[in-house]
Each structure stands twice: as structure tokens, then as C-alpha cells.
Amino acid sequence: MKQFISVDDVPSVPRLVDIALDYKKQPFKDRTLGENKTLGMIFLNPSLRTRLSTQVAAKNLGMEVVVFNIDKEGWQLEMNDGAIMNGNTSEHVKEAAAVMGQYFDIMAIRTFPGLKDKESDYKEKYINQFIKYAGVPVVSLESATLHPLQSLTDVITIKEQWQQPRRPKVVMTWAPHVKPLPQAVPNSFAQWINGWGEADFVITHPEGYELDPKFTGNAQIEYDQDKALEGADFVYVKNWSSYKDYGKITCTDSSWMVTNDKLKGTNAAKIMHCLPVRRNVVIADEVLDGPNAIVIPEAANRVWAAQAVLSEILKGNI
Ligand SMILES: CCC[C@H](NC(C)=O)C(=O)O
Ligand SMILES: NC(=O)OP(=O)(O)O
Prior knowledge:
Blueprint: E1 3-4, H1 13-25, E2 38-43, H2 49-60, E3 64-68, H3 70-73, E4 77-78, E5 91-92, H4 93-103, E6 106-110, H5 118-122, H6 125-134, E7 138-140, H7 148-161, E8 169-174, H8 184-196, E9 200-204, H9 213-216, E10 220-222, H10 225-229, E11 234-238, E12 270-272, H11 285-288, H12 295-300, H13 302-314
Parallel strand pairs: 1-7, 2-3, 2-6, 4-5, 6-7, 8-9, 8-11, 9-10, 11-12
Residues 47-51, 142, 150, 274-276 line the site of phosphoric acid mono(formamide)ester.
């Protein structure tokens, strides 16, 4: 695999899920696979789970890890090819990516969107420039439009939690937030649930929050949240800013916050969120502190998702 930025980079989602669950059972079975190899993790934005779980995963495979907060510790990067660099950018991504590609065997990078220029964000200019110039495999730690390590984790979590023979009903619901957030997590969740193909998938959000159909595929779109939640087995809660009115908050209706009352029509649904979560804005305390919230086991599975991806890259698969 030369990159892991999308479900499209994975030949088989079920196989990758099984590899991750095997690592969960035997974390150190490939402890020498990454010996003498270095993972470089480049952050242009904050992170807790992605930063820490991916380091643990690399360590489980015997890799060395270097973490670089390039937004704070590096030079201001120029991302546009052909630019005359007489402004505030000190180094072109051509050199920065190529130099880091000399130091690392695998490069992982987080590049959030600017949420100002839809075309630039949805062309994934930033991560694609690193892929173009790094010269080593690149793993997304969340890019402008997708978060594949999170979404692989979410599929792993649903598969390990679901013990019934029928297909689970999985509902992704929008919830309010005080800041405009990327569409990356919901885009990616939709892409991976569709790619996994083993759930009945519904997406519910206010009008004006439709996601890019290239990611939502054949998911059922329901504007009535209560109707969508009827009979749900898993409820994946996430805020995102409008794609249509790009980067904007066009709904401030706090009744979309997930509460126990909202969930009364579900099938005692397990509640998921990628974290970080704004308590009592996105999801009420009573839900997060209740028996059906699985956000911590979900976050724990980030290690096994990352370990499966890194090992497949080290083995030259995917
Ligand atoms: C994993 C989530 C990262 C980011 N969240 C925030 C708060 O920026 C997002 O919503 O994409
Ligand atoms: N879910 C997730 O990616 O968390 P961080 O942003 O803290 O890495």
C-alpha cells in the first residue's frame, strides 16, 4: 500500500477489520515486523486519540516513532506549486515532504480543512502534496474530507459489539456544536459503513447539512431525527458544518442534542462518538455516563485499527 487516506485504498474492509481484531487478541504477535523502521507523525492540528493510539500501535510492531507538530515547531509551509515565495511562507512542501521522506519509512499526517474554499479542501490539496513529494507511504491522521483510521475503528467496534445474526441498524445523527467542524468524520464514517456493507445505514441531519453524495452513497437520508432513530442498534453522533453552505453553521436547534429521551425509540442502541465531544451540547451527560455509551471502548480500538494499517503497509499489502 502506498497510502491509506480512504476506504478506496483497502482491497477488503472485512479482512482489515479481522486483522485489527486479531491484534486486539495478540497485540505483540508481530513485535519485530517494524524493527529498524521509523514512523513520522506530522500534525498541522491538535490531536489526542490519533496521536497516542498510533504511537502505541507502531510500538507494538517494533517501530520507532517521531512526532512533529509542524504547525508550531516547523517552518510556515508553501503548499502551492509554482508559488513565488515572497510572503510569509518559508519552506515549500516539495522540500519539507521530501526531506521527511528521507528520515521516515512511513509518514502519517493530519491536515484539517480551512473550511473556506470547498474546491481546495475537497481536492485534498494538502495531503496530496505530501503524498506527491514524500517518496514513502502516507497515512491520513484525518485529512480535509476523511478520517480513515477513525472510521476503520468504528467498523471494528460495531462488528465486535454486534452479536445478533441480523444486520444492525446504524444511524449517524447530526448534533449541534458551537464551532464549524469539518465534514471529514461523517464523510468517512459513511464511506466505511457503505464499504463494509454489513449494516442497514441511515443518516439524519437538518436540511442544508447534506454530505457529499460521493461519500453517503445509498445511505437512507432522513430529516426527521426521531423517525431515523426508531429501532436503531447503533447511534453514531457527530456534528459537522454545512457542506452546501460551505463551512457554515446554518442550524442552531439544540433539540438535535442526543438525550435519553431522544433515544427512547431505539433498540437500546449503543452510543458512539469519535471524541472529543462537547458534553451537554452534542450529547447529554446522562447518555455519555449511561450504560449504552461505548465511546471509551471505541477509542481503545483506535490502537488496533492503526496497528492493522501499519502492519499491512510494512508487509506491502493493501
Ligand atoms: C476527531 C474529530 C476532529 C475534529 N473535531 C474538532 C473538535 O475539531 C472534527 O470534528 O473533525
Ligand atoms: N477521534 C480522534 O481522532 O481524536 P483526536 O482528534 O483527539 O485524535
